[in-house]
Amino acid sequence: MAVIKKHLTTIVLFALLLVLAVWSLFIGVLDVELSGLLQGDREHLEVFLISRLPRLLAILCTGTGMSVAGLIMQQLCMNKFVSPTTGATISSAQFGILLALLFMPNSTLWGRAIFSFAFAVLGTWIFVWFIQRIQFKDVVMVPLVGIMFGNVIGGITNYLAYKYEMTQALSTWLVGHFSMVLRGRYEIVWLTVPLVALAFLFANHFNIVGMGKDFSQNLGVPYNFVLFLGLTIAAMITASVVVVVGSISYIGLIVPNLVAMFKGDKIRGTLIDTALFGALFVLVCDMVGRMVIFPYEMPIELIVGIIGSVLFVALLLYRLGHGRKAIRLSRKGGDVA
After folding, report:
1. Is 88 left (phi over 0), alpha (psi -120 to 50) or beta?
2. What is the distance between the alpha carbons of residues 279 and 45, in angstroms, rounded to a whole number?
3. What is the pLDDT of residues 231-240, one digit of tens each?
4. What topology does CATH give the domain 2-328?
5. pTM for the whole structure
Protein backbone atom coordinates (compact mmCIF):
# COMPACT_ATOMS: atom_id res chain seq x y z
CA MET A 1 0.00 0.00 0.00
CA ALA A 2 2.85 2.38 0.78
CA VAL A 3 4.34 1.84 -2.67
CA ILE A 4 0.97 2.46 -4.33
CA LYS A 5 0.42 5.61 -2.30
CA LYS A 6 3.91 6.89 -3.16
CA HIS A 7 3.37 6.39 -6.90
CA LEU A 8 -0.36 7.16 -6.96
CA THR A 9 0.04 10.15 -9.30
CA THR A 10 2.04 8.08 -11.78
CA ILE A 11 -0.51 5.25 -11.71
CA VAL A 12 -3.44 7.63 -12.25
CA LEU A 13 -1.71 9.39 -15.14
CA PHE A 14 -0.83 6.07 -16.77
CA ALA A 15 -4.39 4.75 -16.39
CA LEU A 16 -5.92 7.91 -17.86
CA LEU A 17 -3.45 7.88 -20.72
CA LEU A 18 -4.20 4.23 -21.49
CA VAL A 19 -7.97 4.76 -21.54
CA LEU A 20 -7.84 7.89 -23.69
CA ALA A 21 -5.27 6.33 -26.04
CA VAL A 22 -7.60 3.43 -26.80
CA TRP A 23 -10.54 5.82 -27.22
CA SER A 24 -8.59 8.05 -29.61
CA LEU A 25 -8.02 5.12 -31.98
CA PHE A 26 -11.73 5.13 -32.83
CA ILE A 27 -12.18 8.90 -33.34
CA GLY A 28 -12.07 10.17 -36.90
CA VAL A 29 -13.98 10.79 -40.12
CA LEU A 30 -13.69 7.17 -41.23
CA ASP A 31 -15.42 4.74 -38.89
CA VAL A 32 -13.19 2.12 -37.33
CA GLU A 33 -15.02 -0.40 -35.16
CA LEU A 34 -13.53 -2.94 -32.79
CA SER A 35 -15.72 -5.66 -34.24
CA GLY A 36 -14.38 -4.94 -37.72
CA LEU A 37 -10.79 -5.15 -36.49
CA LEU A 38 -11.44 -8.45 -34.70
CA GLN A 39 -13.10 -9.88 -37.80
CA GLY A 40 -10.14 -8.83 -39.96
CA ASP A 41 -12.05 -6.34 -42.10
CA ARG A 42 -9.50 -5.08 -44.64
CA GLU A 43 -10.71 -1.48 -44.79
CA HIS A 44 -10.80 -1.13 -41.02
CA LEU A 45 -7.37 -2.68 -40.66
CA GLU A 46 -5.85 -0.38 -43.29
CA VAL A 47 -7.23 2.76 -41.64
CA PHE A 48 -6.11 1.50 -38.23
CA LEU A 49 -2.56 0.53 -39.24
CA ILE A 50 -1.84 3.29 -41.76
CA SER A 51 -3.41 6.26 -39.97
CA ARG A 52 -4.85 5.79 -36.47
CA LEU A 53 -2.04 3.81 -34.80
CA PRO A 54 0.81 5.91 -36.29
CA ARG A 55 -1.05 9.06 -35.24
CA LEU A 56 -1.39 7.80 -31.66
CA LEU A 57 2.29 6.85 -31.49
CA ALA A 58 3.30 10.26 -32.87
CA ILE A 59 1.10 12.00 -30.29
CA LEU A 60 2.61 10.02 -27.41
CA CYS A 61 6.17 10.63 -28.62
CA THR A 62 5.48 14.34 -29.16
CA GLY A 63 3.94 14.91 -25.73
CA THR A 64 6.58 12.88 -23.94
CA GLY A 65 9.51 14.33 -25.86
CA MET A 66 8.57 18.02 -25.75
CA SER A 67 7.73 17.85 -22.03
CA VAL A 68 11.04 16.19 -21.16
CA ALA A 69 12.93 18.64 -23.40
CA GLY A 70 11.35 21.54 -21.53
CA LEU A 71 12.15 19.95 -18.16
CA ILE A 72 15.82 19.52 -19.12
CA MET A 73 16.17 23.10 -20.36
CA GLN A 74 14.51 24.53 -17.26
CA GLN A 75 16.76 22.51 -14.98
CA LEU A 76 20.00 23.36 -16.78
CA CYS A 77 19.12 27.03 -17.17
CA MET A 78 17.76 27.35 -13.63
CA ASN A 79 14.73 29.17 -14.98
CA LYS A 80 11.17 27.85 -15.05
CA PHE A 81 10.24 29.90 -18.11
CA VAL A 82 12.87 28.46 -20.44
CA SER A 83 11.62 25.87 -22.94
CA PRO A 84 12.02 24.92 -26.61
CA THR A 85 9.52 27.69 -27.37
CA THR A 86 11.23 30.45 -25.34
CA GLY A 87 14.76 29.18 -26.02
CA ALA A 88 14.67 29.61 -29.82
CA THR A 89 14.93 25.84 -30.35
CA ILE A 90 11.73 25.50 -32.40
CA SER A 91 12.55 28.56 -34.53
CA SER A 92 16.04 27.22 -35.20
CA ALA A 93 14.66 23.83 -36.24
CA GLN A 94 12.28 25.51 -38.69
CA PHE A 95 15.15 27.55 -40.11
CA GLY A 96 17.12 24.35 -40.68
CA ILE A 97 14.18 22.80 -42.55
CA LEU A 98 13.90 25.87 -44.78
CA LEU A 99 17.59 25.69 -45.67
CA ALA A 100 17.16 22.02 -46.53
CA LEU A 101 14.25 22.92 -48.82
CA LEU A 102 16.29 25.68 -50.48
CA PHE A 103 19.58 23.86 -51.03
CA MET A 104 18.27 20.28 -51.26
CA PRO A 105 14.76 20.54 -52.76
CA ASN A 106 14.67 16.82 -53.51
CA SER A 107 15.87 15.78 -50.06
CA THR A 108 14.07 13.08 -48.11
CA LEU A 109 12.47 13.60 -44.72
CA TRP A 110 15.67 12.32 -43.12
CA GLY A 111 17.73 14.85 -45.07
CA ARG A 112 15.58 17.68 -43.76
CA ALA A 113 15.78 16.18 -40.29
CA ILE A 114 19.58 16.38 -40.33
CA PHE A 115 19.44 20.10 -41.14
CA SER A 116 16.79 20.57 -38.46
CA PHE A 117 18.88 18.72 -35.86
CA ALA A 118 21.99 20.75 -36.62
CA PHE A 119 20.34 24.17 -36.47
CA ALA A 120 18.18 23.34 -33.46
CA VAL A 121 21.29 22.36 -31.50
CA LEU A 122 23.23 25.39 -32.75
CA GLY A 123 20.42 27.85 -31.97
CA THR A 124 19.96 26.46 -28.46
CA TRP A 125 23.69 26.61 -27.74
CA ILE A 126 23.88 30.23 -28.94
CA PHE A 127 20.93 31.19 -26.72
CA VAL A 128 22.50 29.63 -23.62
CA TRP A 129 25.93 31.07 -24.46
CA PHE A 130 24.35 34.51 -24.68
CA ILE A 131 22.45 34.38 -21.38
CA GLN A 132 25.54 33.04 -19.60
CA ARG A 133 27.13 36.41 -20.25
CA ILE A 134 24.31 38.47 -18.80
CA GLN A 135 25.30 39.51 -15.28
CA PHE A 136 21.88 40.49 -13.95
CA LYS A 137 19.25 37.89 -14.80
CA ASP A 138 15.65 38.65 -13.94
CA VAL A 139 13.53 35.50 -13.92
CA VAL A 140 11.37 36.88 -16.74
CA MET A 141 14.12 38.55 -18.75
CA VAL A 142 15.86 35.31 -19.74
CA PRO A 143 12.86 33.79 -21.58
CA LEU A 144 12.10 37.19 -23.12
CA VAL A 145 15.62 37.23 -24.57
CA GLY A 146 14.95 33.75 -25.94
CA ILE A 147 11.64 34.86 -27.45
CA MET A 148 13.30 37.85 -29.12
CA PHE A 149 16.13 35.67 -30.43
CA GLY A 150 13.58 33.19 -31.74
CA ASN A 151 11.63 35.98 -33.43
CA VAL A 152 14.81 37.18 -35.15
CA ILE A 153 15.41 33.66 -36.50
CA GLY A 154 11.72 33.41 -37.44
CA GLY A 155 11.93 36.72 -39.27
CA ILE A 156 14.92 35.54 -41.29
CA THR A 157 13.10 32.28 -42.04
CA ASN A 158 9.99 34.11 -43.27
CA TYR A 159 12.05 36.53 -45.35
CA LEU A 160 13.88 33.74 -47.15
CA ALA A 161 10.63 31.83 -47.60
CA TYR A 162 8.96 34.84 -49.24
CA LYS A 163 12.01 35.69 -51.34
CA TYR A 164 12.36 32.20 -52.78
CA GLU A 165 8.61 31.46 -52.89
CA MET A 166 8.86 28.68 -50.30
CA THR A 167 6.10 29.95 -48.00
CA GLN A 168 3.61 27.27 -48.94
CA ALA A 169 6.19 24.50 -48.65
CA LEU A 170 7.28 25.78 -45.23
CA SER A 171 3.74 26.19 -43.89
CA THR A 172 3.58 22.49 -43.00
CA TRP A 173 6.22 23.03 -40.29
CA LEU A 174 4.92 26.38 -39.01
CA VAL A 175 1.65 25.03 -37.57
CA GLY A 176 1.66 21.74 -35.71
CA HIS A 177 -0.92 19.13 -36.70
CA PHE A 178 -1.23 15.35 -36.79
CA SER A 179 -3.55 15.09 -39.77
CA MET A 180 -0.69 14.23 -42.13
CA VAL A 181 0.90 11.60 -39.90
CA LEU A 182 0.84 8.31 -41.79
CA ARG A 183 2.81 5.10 -41.72
CA GLY A 184 6.12 5.54 -43.50
CA ARG A 185 6.57 9.28 -42.87
CA TYR A 186 6.48 9.72 -39.11
CA GLU A 187 9.07 7.25 -37.81
CA ILE A 188 11.66 9.98 -37.16
CA VAL A 189 9.69 10.97 -34.08
CA TRP A 190 10.63 7.62 -32.53
CA LEU A 191 14.03 9.17 -31.82
CA THR A 192 12.42 10.78 -28.79
CA VAL A 193 12.30 7.38 -27.04
CA PRO A 194 16.08 6.74 -26.77
CA LEU A 195 16.68 10.45 -26.13
CA VAL A 196 14.23 10.46 -23.20
CA ALA A 197 15.89 7.29 -21.89
CA LEU A 198 19.28 9.02 -22.11
CA ALA A 199 17.85 12.00 -20.24
CA PHE A 200 16.71 9.67 -17.44
CA LEU A 201 20.21 8.17 -17.17
CA PHE A 202 21.77 11.64 -16.75
CA ALA A 203 18.97 13.03 -14.56
CA ASN A 204 21.12 13.32 -11.45
CA HIS A 205 23.87 15.04 -13.41
CA PHE A 206 21.35 17.56 -14.75
CA ASN A 207 20.26 18.28 -11.17
CA ILE A 208 23.84 18.94 -10.10
CA VAL A 209 24.64 21.14 -13.12
CA GLY A 210 21.47 23.08 -12.37
CA MET A 211 23.07 24.10 -9.07
CA GLY A 212 25.82 26.03 -10.86
CA LYS A 213 29.29 25.59 -12.29
CA ASP A 214 31.23 25.83 -9.02
CA PHE A 215 28.92 23.37 -7.28
CA SER A 216 29.26 20.90 -10.15
CA GLN A 217 33.05 21.11 -10.22
CA ASN A 218 33.24 20.57 -6.47
CA LEU A 219 31.34 17.31 -6.92
CA GLY A 220 33.49 16.23 -9.84
CA VAL A 221 30.76 16.61 -12.47
CA PRO A 222 31.99 17.95 -15.87
CA TYR A 223 29.80 21.06 -16.06
CA ASN A 224 30.28 22.00 -19.71
CA PHE A 225 29.92 18.43 -20.98
CA VAL A 226 26.69 17.75 -19.08
CA LEU A 227 25.31 21.19 -19.96
CA PHE A 228 25.83 20.72 -23.69
CA LEU A 229 24.70 17.09 -23.54
CA GLY A 230 21.41 18.10 -21.96
CA LEU A 231 20.86 20.97 -24.38
CA THR A 232 21.67 18.69 -27.32
CA ILE A 233 19.16 16.09 -26.12
CA ALA A 234 16.46 18.74 -25.74
CA ALA A 235 17.23 20.25 -29.15
CA MET A 236 17.23 16.91 -30.98
CA ILE A 237 13.92 15.91 -29.37
CA THR A 238 12.40 19.22 -30.48
CA ALA A 239 13.78 18.94 -34.01
CA SER A 240 12.49 15.38 -34.48
CA VAL A 241 9.00 16.56 -33.47
CA VAL A 242 9.09 19.68 -35.67
CA VAL A 243 10.15 17.68 -38.74
CA VAL A 244 7.19 15.29 -38.43
CA VAL A 245 4.44 17.28 -36.73
CA GLY A 246 5.41 20.94 -37.04
CA SER A 247 5.64 23.66 -34.41
CA ILE A 248 3.74 23.05 -31.17
CA SER A 249 4.26 25.73 -28.54
CA TYR A 250 3.94 25.74 -24.76
CA ILE A 251 4.14 21.98 -24.09
CA GLY A 252 7.72 22.12 -22.83
CA LEU A 253 6.88 25.23 -20.83
CA ILE A 254 3.54 24.38 -19.22
CA VAL A 255 3.79 20.66 -18.44
CA PRO A 256 7.04 20.67 -16.37
CA ASN A 257 5.81 23.64 -14.33
CA LEU A 258 2.49 22.00 -13.51
CA VAL A 259 4.14 18.73 -12.51
CA ALA A 260 6.77 20.55 -10.41
CA MET A 261 4.02 22.20 -8.36
CA PHE A 262 2.97 18.77 -7.08
CA LYS A 263 6.16 16.71 -7.32
CA GLY A 264 8.96 19.19 -6.67
CA ASP A 265 11.96 20.21 -8.77
CA LYS A 266 14.10 17.06 -8.60
CA ILE A 267 14.31 15.93 -12.22
CA ARG A 268 14.59 12.19 -11.54
CA GLY A 269 11.51 12.29 -9.32
CA THR A 270 9.43 14.23 -11.85
CA LEU A 271 10.69 12.88 -15.19
CA ILE A 272 8.23 9.98 -15.51
CA ASP A 273 5.25 12.05 -14.38
CA THR A 274 6.27 14.86 -16.72
CA ALA A 275 6.48 12.45 -19.65
CA LEU A 276 3.09 10.87 -18.85
CA PHE A 277 1.34 14.19 -18.25
CA GLY A 278 2.85 15.65 -21.43
CA ALA A 279 1.60 12.71 -23.50
CA LEU A 280 -1.83 12.99 -21.84
CA PHE A 281 -1.99 16.76 -22.41
CA VAL A 282 -1.19 16.47 -26.13
CA LEU A 283 -3.58 13.53 -26.56
CA VAL A 284 -6.47 15.43 -24.96
CA CYS A 285 -5.78 18.52 -27.08
CA ASP A 286 -5.67 16.40 -30.23
CA MET A 287 -8.96 14.68 -29.37
CA VAL A 288 -10.58 18.07 -28.74
CA GLY A 289 -9.30 19.29 -32.11
CA ARG A 290 -10.81 16.26 -33.83
CA MET A 291 -14.22 16.51 -32.16
CA VAL A 292 -14.98 20.22 -31.72
CA ILE A 293 -15.92 20.83 -35.39
CA PHE A 294 -16.34 17.23 -36.50
CA PRO A 295 -15.97 16.00 -39.27
CA TYR A 296 -13.36 18.75 -39.78
CA GLU A 297 -10.21 18.99 -37.71
CA MET A 298 -8.49 21.89 -35.96
CA PRO A 299 -4.65 21.99 -35.80
CA ILE A 300 -3.36 20.98 -32.41
CA GLU A 301 -1.18 24.12 -32.36
CA LEU A 302 -4.38 26.17 -32.11
CA ILE A 303 -5.78 24.15 -29.20
CA VAL A 304 -2.47 24.03 -27.32
CA GLY A 305 -1.89 27.73 -28.03
CA ILE A 306 -5.21 28.78 -26.50
CA ILE A 307 -4.83 26.62 -23.40
CA GLY A 308 -1.09 27.23 -23.10
CA SER A 309 -1.30 31.02 -23.32
CA VAL A 310 -3.81 31.14 -20.46
CA LEU A 311 -1.75 28.77 -18.34
CA PHE A 312 1.45 30.66 -19.16
CA VAL A 313 0.03 33.93 -17.83
CA ALA A 314 -1.21 32.13 -14.71
CA LEU A 315 2.21 30.52 -14.15
CA LEU A 316 3.93 33.84 -14.73
CA LEU A 317 1.86 35.52 -12.03
CA TYR A 318 2.33 32.54 -9.69
CA ARG A 319 6.11 32.41 -10.11
CA LEU A 320 6.50 36.15 -9.66
CA GLY A 321 4.41 36.00 -6.51
CA HIS A 322 6.02 32.93 -4.94
CA GLY A 323 9.44 32.43 -6.58
CA ARG A 324 12.70 34.35 -6.68
CA LYS A 325 12.15 37.49 -8.70
CA ALA A 326 15.76 37.99 -9.65
CA ILE A 327 19.05 36.18 -9.52
CA ARG A 328 22.39 37.94 -9.54
CA LEU A 329 25.28 35.80 -10.60
CA SER A 330 28.85 36.79 -11.16
CA ARG A 331 30.45 36.71 -14.56
CA LYS A 332 33.22 34.47 -13.29
CA GLY A 333 30.74 31.80 -12.16
CA GLY A 334 29.51 31.38 -15.70
CA ASP A 335 26.17 30.05 -14.44
CA VAL A 336 22.92 30.14 -16.33
CA ALA A 337 19.88 31.75 -14.79
Report:
1. left
2. 25
3. 999 999 999 9
4. ABC transporter involved in vitamin B12 uptake, BtuC (1.10.3470)
5. 0.85
